[in-house]
Amino acid sequence: MRQTPALPPLLPMTPTAALEAWKVGLMAYELWTTSLTTIAMRHNLWYTKSPTSRSMMRENQRMVTEKLDASLEVAAEWQKAMLNMASGRFSPWWETGHRTLTPLHRRTTANSRRLSSRRNSRRG
Questions:
Q1: Among 77, 83, 91, 108, which is disulfide-ready with 95 (CB 3.0 to 4.6 Å)?
Q2: How far is Cα 117 from Cα 18, in angstroms, rounded to an integer?
Q3: Are 30 and 109 in contact (CB under 8 A)?
Q4: Cα–Cα distance for residue pair 97/108, rounded to 1 Å
């Protein structure tokens, strides 16, 4: 009779789990790079436009509401993970990490695409 461990392994033991852990690392890298590019493009907007212009006010409001929405989604995922751990249902870190990073990753990549397309459309 095979016993199952009480906790999931710290390291991925199957090729599928290793691939999922790799995807979380790739997602974290993409999140980091798109966050930096978004920050750089927003700084460029702040330097080149009047802070009281309608487009800047709209962009700043959008930035704040997106950060709040993403933070609430991440907090909900953390709460689910903690409640699952408290009830004895553990999931590996790569599954929890993927679910936690997804709201932030989705928003940062969308912002980076949106701001870079705006920048490229004004150049041409």
A1: 91
A2: 35
A3: yes
A4: 16
The residue that leads in pLDDT, 6 or 56, is 56
Check: CB of residue 77 under 8 Å from CB of residue 83: no
As to burial, measured by CB atoms within 10 angstroms (0-12 exposed, 13-18 middle, 19+ buried), residue 47 is exposed
Model-level pTM?
0.78
Is the CA virtual torsion 28, 29, 30, 31 positive or negative?
positive
Q: Which two tokens stand for residue 53?
A: 């212009």
Q: Are 30 and 107 in contact (CB under 8 A)?
A: no
pLDDT of residue 10: 78
